Amino acid sequence: MDELIAVDIGNTNITLGLFKDKEIGDRFRISTNRNATTDECFFWLKDMFPLWEQTSGIRSIVCSVVPSLTEPVSGAIERITGKKPLIVSSDLNLGIEILYNPPEDVGADRIANAVAVSEFYQLPAVVIDLGTATTFDIVSGNREYIGGLISPGIETSLSNLFQRAARLFPTDLIPVKSVIGKNTSDAIRAGTLYTAVDGIEGVTDRIESEIGKLSSVIITGGLAEIVSGVLRRDVIVDINITLKGLYKIAERNPQ
Predict the structure, then answer these.
(1) What is the mean pLDDT of residues 66-75?
(2) Domain containing 203 — which CATH number?
(3) Do residues 128 and 183 both lie within one domain?
(4) Looking at 49-58, 67-76, 204-213, 231-240, which range is the least confident one?
(5) 47, 91, 109, 234: which is the annotated catalytic residue?
(6) 102, 172, 221, 232: most buried, per Cβ within 10 A?
């Protein structure tokens, strides 16, 4: 059986997927602790795999946008599997050309997303990742990563609002039926959701005005389902796109 451990270390969460014969089996997510040690990462991983002894020799791949955690997580994986994980970078065989200046500045998660888009969806395409930052990454019809956009994430902006506005209090971001809020909580929800949605649609329109019509618009991240529900354009929700990209990168770079 072909197995692979794929780990996406993000600013807010760490996501781990165990692939079996090219399909995602178990999938886990925990909050990111930037100060975690190799030992702490080891016990976290051990808890995720009750039969972790059976992971000996399994291949693994890590993409990280948190430099302080790259080595601790990689070291923990090596302790469990007996093999060093593959670390995602622009230097690997990706199957796409990166037209970014310089290429090494592209985040590892954005690389994984772009690779997944090029492998699983019609091109040209954009993948919109709703995380700590909201990122747009565009892959041309010639399998070129041509760049993208980075803006503060939806929940990041909301958290900053609560920190700076004395009379506004934390509110769960849930769908609202009307763009016009009838109370403060719904006004915050509507304002946060619809300004984000209109921003996504507006930016996507601008991308198309520069490169032509997109064949695929993919949304991922924790808020993908909520946001996609009120978008006026057709989109594809794929919460596993980063992990799928990691699988394809590992496939192209055998250890």
Answers:
(1) 96
(2) 3.30.420.40
(3) yes
(4) 49-58
(5) 109
(6) 221
